[in-house]
Write a structure and sequence with these properties.
Structural class of chain B: alpha/beta
Number of strands of chain A: 22
Number of domains of chain A: 4
InterPro entries (chain B): AAA+_ATPase, ABC_transporter-like_ATP-bd, ABC_transporter-like_CS, ABC_transpr_LolD-like, MacB-like_ATP-bd, P-loop_NTPase
Radius of gyration of chain A: 34 Å
GO cellular component, one term (chain B): plasma membrane
CATH topology of chain B: Rossmann fold
Helix content of chain B: 25-40%
Strand order of the largest sheet of chain B: 6-7-8-3-9-10
Largest sheet of chain B: 6 strands, mixed
Largest sheet of chain A: 6 strands, mixed, barrel
Number of helices of chain A: 25
Protein name (chain B): Putative ABC transport system ATP-binding protein
Keywords (chain B): ATP-binding, Nucleotide-binding, Transport
Structural class of chain A: alpha+beta
Strand content of chain A: 15-25%
Distance between the termini of chain B: 23 Å
Helix content of chain A: 40-55%
Radius of gyration of chain B: 17 Å
Pfam families (chain B): ABC_tran
CATH architecture of chain B: 3-Layer(aba) Sandwich
Distance between the termini of chain A: 32 Å
Number of domains of chain B: 1
Number of strands of chain B: 10
Shape of chain A: elongated
Strand order of the largest sheet of chain A: 2-3-9-6-8-7
Largest interface: A-B, 34 and 37 residues
Oligomer: heterodimer
């Protein structure tokens, strides 16, 4: 046969499209690409927005922290490289206004501060908040509102900082990098760095923290820090979000993993949808190919035509999917604009690449193998009038589809654990599908008679295809269940970490004689504080008689003083992992388990501490885990009561204070001037807001995924609809009642749904186990609800979708159904 | 006149769960150019299987077939497809028109598969010859059964006319009137024989109708995969005289 014109596949594609056949596969491809592109765009923009938001915790993209001013040449180099640069200088100082004095946390900022994020201030106490992008001008200061009554000041009054008298020109309500020094004591004062020399506060030996802020082009920034880092001394450190705000960084990491998981599941769902649609397309084209072959087209010619069509289709569908996906996400971002703290920046090219790769991977990984099978159509089928597909195992289909899908997921998620988790879930699902299907068709449910007999008969006739269908339905349900439960796990975990009434104020340096009075003040004001823990400072000097400095382990805990405490009662967030908590007469020390691991400590080891020049030696009585995120006072070393009685101690506690009762802090400071208050309320509020926004992002992506999952279920139902319609029409022609048929359809799809749901629950539990332990780094717990919800959702979704799709077989005259199918 | 179709000692067996089933048992025949052969027999006698083997749609388990000078039993599927493209046309009982294509596009398909230019013009010409010049843009679902079969005949002759050199074309028809009423069936048969005579092609058809079989030069009756009777009606002294039962 002469060469086919190159345009023939396109001409046939056009004709096929007009005939409606190609719409099946094209719709699946467009949906797949649109769904993945929208999620990739959305995730990309959300991730960028979250990073901008998270960078505002630093007020910059990167920060160098130093205890001394850095070489000016470093800053000039940054400017020469086109980077933005600013600096802050923080220190504690006594402020005075007339005869009022107050200790405060002062921060002097240069022009340009903050490089990322914003400040919020009020020019007067009764004015509304104003968002500003720079600090106070020279000769002016902004104060945290509670300082006004403490210092008896008004706006416009003069405030003395060191030797400089500065004018109070505003109230500071929000600073992005408040979390820079969580344990900075006292209320905040913001001044201009130009006024710093006039204060004459900074002297050699002063405790001052210098922060150098940088922002700019990612590449230029990375290159600058490559240049800078070798030059840093031991007093200087680069701070990024992970170090500056680990809780937010961890939330962002997990959220990113979740979004990647969602994107991967979208690819999985898309693949299944395209695979099902392609199978149906290939089945419906068997007659076409048989006729073409009888007209003299060989296998190569058929492949040439269909692959040509597939390439053209993949191009068109991918382009349409990219466009639709981009428009959908743009619309979604517009609709949700009010919920985002910052405008999500436009996404880069990567979401389009992801969509493109998805389109072609789905088209060639999942649509190509059925076409290869199609090309094997026997031309004798035209004479036999048998349009079943060649029923041969297609190694290409078994290898190409899953391989391309896994590679795509790996590329998309960048995470081997996520890829393997999904693969494990899918393998369980497919293996289980065959097993469950076998049990279904061999079961004795048919003996129930009536609709059960028809439904079971139908399941038996399509046993091989039902395995595929259960796997497809199961994939859709697995994706939905995994996402719903992963989202619940994450958000619950975040909420547990920062419960609504988590302590947000710490009181330290409480002298023993103030304990009673302080407790009374808190009680009178209905403030529930944690236990008041005594605290002495001491250094661990020897372990089992070996001096600490000779130990191989160079943990920081051996080089600095530790806070040592004692208590009779184990705190609720502490748990004994080895040894036992003490009874009255016991001695010893309880050591935090991770520190014990770092120092190589075991139960019974003898530890010697140096406290104020005196030494105390005791044995390790227990190892403890504790939750550093509980916002309660916690200690590496807890002694048995009585062991440290001879040493002078101060006390520490923490409590929750709602915003409307903030002025109680002023009463505390006035009544107990030696007590220091550490205020964490604003930073906790900011962390909570950020996590809420991340949660919202996760929930919106999950909603998109649920839509994609339902689409796969519909594709699965459509893939088997023709035969079912035909059989139902024949049964009705033979006198079968509509209710009988309807019941059998509900039973058939319901059973398929239950089987798929059960397997999806197993797969989802396996997936969640890997995700929790390997990706989110959370303890794994079983999800009993999953096992109930899986089969239930399967029965409901598949049952309803299947029955609705086949309802025409019972609602229309059978002759009409048969004629349409013919 | 030389033989355009020759089969020697054809056997066709298929494996089943109950053992091997013999569909055709030692069939030999020979047909000259321009002649017509009717294959009849009861359902399941092996008529369509024999038609498929003779047209090169499948290979026999044993035996040899020559079609237009080529031994198609020595060829693989791709080579047989090339022979079909060159000189074979098909008419099926259920028409086998592609539902997504118009009448003209269905007829164009063989020419397009061969990469010929002016496929549309040639298709229009053949549709005019079967009296459907006013139905070019209609889809199969918009045509009656008789009209659909006429489109199929136009496609078959278009296929032969484009590929065959001289009068090498051979038309295989599988119960071409099986889905039509008597009147339409009669008109379709008249049309086929008329076109056959005009274009000098050879015709092999499977039918249940005695009247149709009687119009052919030769008549082969099958029973249980074997030749039951072979009537010698051939113009040139009968190639079927060589048939061995």
């Amino acid at each position: 046969m002469a060469a086919t014109t190159p345009m023939l596949p396109l001409k046939l594609l056009g004709r096929d499209w007009r005939g409606g056949e190609l719409a099946l596969i094209a719709t699946a491809l467009v949906l797949a690409v649109a769904c993945v592109t929208a999620i990739a765009h959305f995730s990309d923009r959300l991730t960028r927005a979250m990073h901008i938001q998270s960078q505002s915790f630093l007020a910059a993209e990167r920060v160098v922290r130093s205890s001394k001013p850095v070489d000016k040449g470093w800053l000039e180099e940054a400017r020469a490289r086109g980077l933005q640069q600013a600096e802050t200088v923080s220190f504690a100082s006594m402020l005075s206004a007339g005869d009022q004095f107050q200790f405060a946390a002062v921060k002097a900022v240069s022009p340009g501060y903050p490089l990322v994020g914003h400040l919020e201030m009020r020019p007067a106490p009764d004015a509304s908040r104003t968002v500003v992008r720079q600090g106070p001008p020279a000769r002016e200061v902004w104060l945290e509102p509670r300082l006004l009554p403490l210092l008896n000041l008004d706006i416009g009054d003069s405030l003395q900082i060191g030797e400089a008298a500065l004018t109070v020109s505003g109230l500071l309500d929000h600073e992005p990098d408040r979390s820079d020094n969580l344990f900075a004591m006292g209320a905040r004062v913001l001044m201009n760095v130009a006024d710093l020399p006039a204060t004459n506060i900074i002297q050699p030996g002063s405790r001052v923290r210098y922060r150098y802020l940088f922002a700019g082009d990612d590449v230029a920034l990375a290159r600058y820090f490559d240049w800078l880092e070798p030059r840093l001394t031991e007093h200087q450190r680069v701070i990024d979000l992970r170090e500056g705000q680990p809780r937010v960084a961890s939330a962002l990491d997990r959220a990113e993993s979740f979004l990647f998981l969602a994107g991967s599941l979208a690819v999985l769902l898309a693949s299944v949808a395209v695979g099902l649609a392609s199978r149906r397309y290939s089945l419906r084209h068997t007659a076409y190919v048989a006729v073409m072959k009888s007209l003299g087209a060989g296998r190569a010619k058929v492949l040439q035509i269909y692959i040509g069509q597939l390439v053209a289709l993949a191009f068109c569908a991918t382009a349409a999917g990219l466009l639709i996906g981009s428009l959908v996400q743009a619309q979604a971002v517009t609709l949700m604009a009010d919920f985002f703290p910052v405008d999500p920046p436009p996404s880069g090219w990567s979401p389009l690449l992801v969509g493109l790769a998805t389109g072609f991977a789905c088209a060639f990984g999942f649509a190509l193998p059925p076409l290869f099978r199609l090309a094997r159509t026997d031309p004798m089928q035209t004479l036999r009038r048998d349009w079943s597909n060649p029923d041969r195992r297609e190694w290409l289909g078994l290898v190409l589809g899953p391989t391309s899908m896994l590679l795509l997921i790996w590329w998309l998620s960048g995470s081997l654990p996520i890829t393997l988790a999904l693969f494990a879930g899918m393998a369980l699902l497919v293996g289980g599908s065959a097993l469950v299907n076998l049990l279904l068709v061999r079961g004795r449910l048919a003996s129930l008679g009536g609709p059960w007999r028809i439904a079971l008969g139908s399941l038996q006739r399509r046993a091989a295809f039902n395995t595929l269908l259960i796997a497809a339905f199961g994939t859709g349900l697995l994706a939905m269940l995994s996402l719903v439960f992963a989202r619940t796990t994450l958000i619950d975990e975040w909420r547990m970490q920062l419960p609504e009434n988590a302590p947000n104020h710490f009181l330290i340096n409480i002298a023993p004689h103030d304990v009673q009075g302080l407790q009374s003040l808190l009680d009178e004001n209905g403030v529930q504080a944690t236990e008041l823990y005594p605290m002495v400072r001491g250094r661990l000097v020897a372990i089992n008689g070996v001096p600490a400095k000779e130990r191989k382990e160079q943990a920081g805990a051996l080089r600095r003083e530790l806070n040592l405490s004692w208590t009779e009662n184990l705190a609720p967030d502490n748990r004994i992992l080895a040894g036992k908590w003490w009874d009255e007469a016991d001695e010893g020390v309880s050591v935090e388990v991770e520190l014990a691991a770092r120092l190589g400590l075991a139960l019974g080891d003898r530890l010697r501490f140096s406290i104020g020049g005196l030494e105390v030696e005791t044995h390790i009585a227990s190892l403890r885990s504790l939750d550093w995120n509980s916002m309660r006072p916690n200690f590496y070393m807890l002694f048995a009561p009585g062991t440290l009685d001879d040493f002078p101690a101060t006390y520490i506690t923490s409590f929750y204070l709602p915003p409307e009762r903030k002025l109680l802090v002023n009463d505390l400071v006035r009544e107990f001037p030696s007590v220091s208050v550490i205020e964490l309320d604003k930073i906790i509020q900011r962390i909570r807001e950020t996590i809420d926004q991340v949660s919202l992002a996760i929930e919106s992506v999950m909603a998109l995924m649920l839509v994609a999952g339902v689409l796969v279920l519909i594709s699965g139902v459509r893939a088997s609809i023709t035969e079912r319609l035909q059989e139902a029409a024949i049964i009705r022609t033979l006198g079968g009642r509509r209710t009988l048929l309807l019941q059998s359809l509900v039973i058939e799809f319901g059973l398929l749904g239950i089987a798929a749901g059960l397997l999806a629950a197993i797969g989802a539990e396996a997936t969640l186990a890997v995700l929790a332990t390997r990706v989110f780094e959370l303890p794994f717990t079983m999800h009993p609800l999953l096992w109930l919800l899986g089969p239930l959702a399967g029965a409901l979704l598949v049952g309803v979708a299947g029955t609705l799709a086949c309802r025409s077989s019972v609602s229309q005259p059978p002759l009409k159904v048969l004629r349409e199918l013919a | 006149m030389s033989a355009i179709l020759r089969a020697e000692n054809l056997y066709h067996r298929v494996p089943t769960s109950e053992g091997t089933l013999t569909l055709l048992n030692n069939i030999s025949l020979q047909l000259a150019r321009g002649e017509s052969l009717a294959i009849t027999g009861a359902s399941g006698s092996g008529k369509s299987t024999l038609l498929g083997l003779l047209a090169g749609l499948d290979k026999p388990s044993e035996g040899r077939i020559w079609l237009a000078g080529d031994e198609i039993t020595a060829m693989d599927e791709e080579q047989r497809a090339a022979v079909r493209a060159r000189c074979v046309g098909f008419v099926f009982q259920t028409f086998q028109l592609l539902p997504g294509l118009t009448a003209q596009e269905n007829v164009m398909l063989p020419s397009e598969l061969r990469g010929e230019r002016n496929a549309a013009g040639r298709a229009a010409e053949f549709l005019a010859r079967v009296g459907l010049e006013h139905r070019l843009g209609h889809y199969p679902r918009q045509l009656s059964g008789g009209e659909q079969q006429r489109v199929a005949i136009a496609r078959a002759y278009c296929s032969i006319a484009g590929g065959a050199s001289g009068n090498d074309g051979i038309l295989f028809a599988d119960e071409p009137t099986g889905s039509l009423d008597a009147g339409n069936g009669e008109r379709i048969i008249d049309l086929m024989f008329q076109l056959n005579a005009e274009s000098g092609t050879t015709l092999v058809l499977v039918t249940h109708e005695q009247r149709l079989a009687e119009r052919c030069h030769s008549h082969l009756r099958l029973a249980a995969g074997e030749i039951e009777t072979a009537d010698l009606l051939s113009r040139d002294g009968g190639n079927l005289s060589e048939v061995s039962a």
